[in-house]
Amino acid sequence: MHAEDFRGKSFWLGTRPYTPGPSLSGDLEVDVAIVGGGFTGLATAHFLKQEEPSLRVALLEAEVIGYGASGRNGGFSMTLFGLTLSITAARFGKARAREAHLYMERAVDLLAERIATLGLDCDYEHPGFLRVATSEKYRKRILHEIELAHSLGLEGIEWMEADRLGEEVRSPLYLGAWWEPRCGILNPAKLAWSWKEVVEGQGVEVFEGTPVRQIRRRGDRLELGTPGGTVRAGKLVLATNAWSHLIPMLRRKQVPAFTHIVLTEPLGDRHFEEIGWRNRQGIEDARNLVHYYRLTADNRLLMGGRDISVAFGRDMDRDLNEEVFNGLERDVRETFPVLRDVRFTHRWGGPVSIPVDMAPAMGYLGDPRVVYSLGCVGHGVSMTHLNGRTVTDLVLERSTDLTEVFFVNRRTIPWPPEPLRWAASHAVLGYMRLEDRVHDPR
Ligand SMILES: Cc1cc2nc3c(=O)[nH]c(=O)nc-3n(C[C@H](O)[C@H](O)[C@H](O)COP(=O)(O)OP(=O)(O)OC[C@H]3O[C@@H](n4cnc5c(N)ncnc54)[C@H](O)[C@@H]3O)c2cc1C
């Protein structure tokens, strides 16, 4: 990749100067090797060095830090685990749905705390989160979710009626909203690069432009082959997210799906007079294939979602989808008609990691020397940070409240091989699209 090519992968990756660090050249002997320079890998590196400063830790990233989903996402720090609370309850039972939500609350709080304590430079704001109802069916869906949350004893979520919502954000589509003040928004690429500075300060050796091409178990060591040299490690953490199916040990645990984003020029006072949104909440709707939207630090409107792209086999080149981009631009104008003449300046996409049951998974692979973490679907900004803490406990072979949560060392359902995988993911996607059309015929 050309030195600056990563910047085209998202608006965020162009918002501050960044010079990638060196690639690995020569052989290396470490206690722990981490593969993947997104939030999972960075948070794991941070907590490992915090817990055991004497460990020699190397982090290996194929491209640049933040090149994956971590440098391209919507920047919502939110409490959603998997797809919805009720789907989690149906799949794992109510007690575990509650456990998952509490884990996510802890994740959001941990991220806010780390940002404040370490002074991570990422334009963090704490405006809360709205899940808006855009049709009667979605209003009922959200009310049902809130009722379920309350029945599980979860707090901090309430229904906001349409007139009260209109005092916050005005759209002709809104019929009310789920309101959750706990959540935040941030600039994800700045966060990833700030994390890199922190972990390097802790003594972690970070190598960019260093793809791990082979992994072998050799006696009591793990051997990682990269173009510039071999890394020998006592323990290995696989933090490769949507790329994980390319690693033989993880092949069937997840598949990548690509979500897409459009971004406007900075909005002006006349737009805000009409829309309100002075409190700058992060917003999603309640579709299966959600829209997510927010303001950036310089008051651009970012909207993502609407539909996703599915890849076949090893293909990881599905970031761009003209049909979805055009649809998102129409959706921005339909949501806020005052933006009919606004200019769009950026379009991008990125891969999210999807297990068969759309719920995150992490744990040991074979024996305690290899730990993996993946499958945050589209909701990993906060979760990957607490996962980094959990992975640390797994690496150190400590049994803690974090390693006891039900999705650690859970049995995952394997994806079938291609072409069945492609057919299965299209069947699920087709159903989700159809249901969205029924719920909101617009
Ligand atoms: C467009 C988009 C919008 C999203 N919006 C939100 C949101 O608003 N809120 C939210 O909570 N979540 C969101 N998500 C999801 C969230 O971004 C992810 O869950 C999270 O960033 C995953 O972090 P990670 O570190 O696990 O993976 P990644 O950030 O994807 O990092 C994995 C890294 O591993 C590297 N890698 C892979 N294979 C190798 C190898 N063999 N050798 C070396 N390196 C390798 C990759 O290059 C990559 O940098 C979004 C995702 C996308 C794509």
- The fraction of residues assigned to DSSP E strands is 15-25%
Please outline the major beta sheet: 8 strands, mixed
Overall geometry comes to: globular
- What ligands can be seen in this structure? flavin-adenine dinucleotide
Order of helices and strands: EHEEHHEHEHEEHEEEEEHEEEHEEEHH
- Report the count of strand segments: 18
Question: Which structural class is indicated by helix and strand composition?
Answer: alpha/beta
Low-pLDDT runs of 5+ residues are: none
Helices, by number, come to 10
Arithmetic mean pLDDT: 96
Our Rg estimate from Cα atoms comes to 21 Å
Span between N and C termini? Answer: 42 Å
Please bin the fraction of helical residues. Answer: 25-40%
Task: Describe what this molecule looks like in 3D.
- The chain is α/β, with parallel strands linked by helices.
- The protein is built from ten helices and 18 strands.
- The strands form three sheets. Strands 1, 2, 8, 9, 10, 11, 17 and 18 form an eight-stranded mixed sheet that branches. An eight-stranded mixed sheet has the order 5-6-4-13-14-15-12-16. Strands 3-7 form a two-stranded antiparallel sheet.
- A hairpin with a 5-residue loop joins β13 and β14.
- The longest helix is centred in the first third of the chain and has 25 residues.
- The two termini are 42 Å apart.
- The mean pLDDT is 96.
- The chain binds flavin-adenine dinucleotide (FAD).
- The site of flavin-adenine dinucleotide has 43 residues, from α1, β12 and β16.
- The site of flavin-adenine dinucleotide (FAD) has 43 residues, from α1, β12 and β16.
